[in-house]
Sequence to fold (186 residues):
Amino acid sequence: MADANYSAALEDCNAVDERVPNNAVVLTVRSQILQHLGRHEEAIADCKSLDRMSMTSGIPSRPMALNGLAYARAVGNLELDDALKGVEEALAMQPGDPMFLDTRGFILYRQGKYAESFTDMERAVIDIEKLLREPAKDRRSLIQGVAVVRYHRALVLEKLGRYAEAKLDRARAKQLIGRNPDETLF
Fold:
């Protein structure tokens, strides 16, 4: 997956899934691979399985499962009303989480509600940038998250006609990930 060889990564994931079915880590990784392959319905199906697992076992946590499913729906631009309900529930459990705010903002962007989206994106950018100043267990994942949030806010700013600000967010995302952000950044 790190080499962007998504077909091979999916084969590997499916092989592990056959040996260890219904594993939360495997389903999470596979859903991400499926998103990269443009197979959004299948990615959403894996996230729905994760959501069910979270209700029975607590793994992944309820907020993470709800946000993951909502985000998969947003990336695929599918089931957006359900996505919004899910992320609202996640935010009720973890108010102010910058990644959850990004998910809600991205869903609102997909729905064409740019002013509402910007409110969430603005707060998400401020809060997630603060996290970069603190020690983190998974720094690489955090850097990726900051780039995603900056890219999403750039999309919203462009829809609002605020092109200079959007350009700055795109530049920050590029600085973080070493390439121009695009729809493959999620």
